Amino acid sequence: MNILTTLEELVLSGIDTLYSAKADVKTIQFQKTRKEFEGDFTLVVFPFLKMSKKNPEQTAEELGTYLLNNNKNIVSFNVVKGFLNIKLSDSYWINELKIISTDKLFGLKPANSSGKSIMVEYSSPNTNKPLHLGHIRNNLLGYAVSEILKANGHNVIKVNLVNDRGIHICKSMLAWQKWGNGATPESTGLKGDKLVGDYYVKFDQEYKKQIKELTDKGVDEKQAKEDAELIQEAREMLRQWEAGNIEVNQLWKTMNGWVYDGFDVTYKVLGVDFDKIYYESETYKLGKSIVLEGLEKGILIQKEDGSIWADLTADGLDQKILLRSDGTSVYMTQDIGTAHQRFSEFKLNDLVYVVGNEQNYHFQVLKLVLIKLGYNWAEHISHLSYGMVELPEGKMKSREGTVVDADDLIADMIDTARQTSEELGKINDFTGDEATKLFKMIGLGALKYFILKVDPKKTMLFNPQESIDFNGNTGPFVQYTHARIRSVIRKAEEAGIEQYIVGEENIKLSEKEQNLIKLVFEYPNIIAEAGNNFSPAIIANYIYELAKEYNQFYHDHSILKEDNIDIQKFRLSISTKTADIIKSGAALLGMEVPEKM
């Protein structure tokens, strides 16, 4: 039985025995004892004062004495105001370590054991440009959240909705027609997504020139943006695409194919994947019938021009258009239909959209409109709203070509990992292939960890040089700690030293050993907390704390040269479990950890 469950039952029994009262288990609050006080767990006693009819200190003293006398694992307690700090015996912790030492899946719940199916949508790129730093945060968050939800026993479906239609796509297509001279990925040596992205930038450059020419002639800037020949041609191309023009559609398929091939390369290097890919070109009409049905039922309203709206003013929002006057769909219409399709197709319990915080209002409206349309499952839609990624020099702009390209960034991270590793002498005994694999592991690990250690809700500043430091709260520090532990274990195996714990009654834990073993036991709760909050940052910062705690333990304690065999075996066992958890936690973030460095 979990120790906290045991302590809860003991508290209930103590209140009944001491005060002849029945407490609700929900009022029992245990938390980790703060570092400045002695103890492992702290009980908040304020909820029990009405039952004890005594002050907090007296109540805590009486409950502490009762717990001490009725559980052999409790060795002492102390009271700080209304808080009861409880200390467990060393033998309890060591015995618990014995139990989990052989559990390779410690902390992870069996696959699909929760009975819940959760869909996570992430990536959602446009097919007019390559993936950039912002997409990296999105993809890493979506993938990590999916893996964490799996670790909590849920059935997870990872999906991608590709935005492959619209005026922005036509801008790249039109620019390629005008200035591409038949260029292809093969003829230029460029990845397809980069080639198409270059023409998106080209369109913007030429469009701005036309706007300036018009404003120089005295045309109002707003009008100039409408009258510029390029934007008129792009709109006409979009109309032709929607009308099914064969030539336009063929060009669209060709250029999108280039982009998909490019995306696939980036996804593979980044280590993210999807169970299903949706395409906006196939889903943008899905919600139209639902909207028309909502109009028939009087849930939605129609204006004089024939457009259909959701009136959300009574809910403190505004009116939201769902179908234009010409009957065409908007993004909201598409999302209504796609959500309906997904819940029907997969019998989902929850649907999580991983989308930047600039879309907060959109998802607030989507959920509310679906609820008004009578879909109760809409209560189970969540928006994992994450902050933007900024650089020391400021924000990125795709149209102006000032974004940090994902492929370039990944290549730079791997190269920086190579330079740093060579300077620190980390690869002196590596073969060429081993070194190349290590550089990639460190570079990607640094990138993933640096992005995921930040609370998703926060805007973050990305500093590549800072991320690859082998000291501090970084991926390489976590990776190096794992390699250090594995080195110790290899040496023990070579020396024929076994790990299993015996004679635990002869082992007196030091403060560093106590801290490390208690941190190890937090792992299942950390995974649960990260899943409940859709926050990989909780996992990232936990494995950093674990790595840091291990390094302090390693600095202060001998392992292989320890004379006491029982203590040596214990230290090897806690080392192995620490390495297992670092590797497991890193995997939830999509990170690999090396066996040696």
Descriptive account of the structure:
The chain has 597 residues and is α/β, with parallel strands linked by helices. Among the domains are: 3-88, Arginyl tRNA synthetase N-terminal domain (Gyrase A, domain 2), CATH 3.30.1360.70; 166-268, no CATH class; 288-328, no CATH class; 413-588, Orthogonal Bundle (Isoleucyl-tRNA Synthetase, Domain 1). The protein is built from 23 helices and 14 strands. The chain has helices at residues 3-19, 49-52, 56-70, 90-100, 133-151, 167-179, 185-188, 192-216, 221-227, 229-242, 246-270, 280-283, 288-296, 331-346, 360-372, 406-424, 432-452, 464-467, 475-494, 511-520, 523-532, 536-556, 565-588; strands at 30-32, 41-44, 74-80, 83-88, 117-121, 155-162, 276-279, 301-302, 308-311, 319-323, 350-356, 381-386, 389-390, 460-461. It has a five-stranded parallel beta sheet with strand order 7-6-5-11-12, sandwiched between helices. Strands 1-2-4-3 form a four-stranded antiparallel beta sheet. A hairpin with a 2-residue loop joins strand 3 and strand 4 (83-88). Helix 16 packs across helix 17 (432-452). It is globular and about 90 Å long. The chain starts with a helix and ends in a 9-residue tail after the last helix. The mean pLDDT is 93.
How would you concisely characterize the structure shown here?
This protein has 597 residues and is α/β, with parallel strands linked by helices. It has 23 helices and 14 strands. It is globular and about 90 Å long.
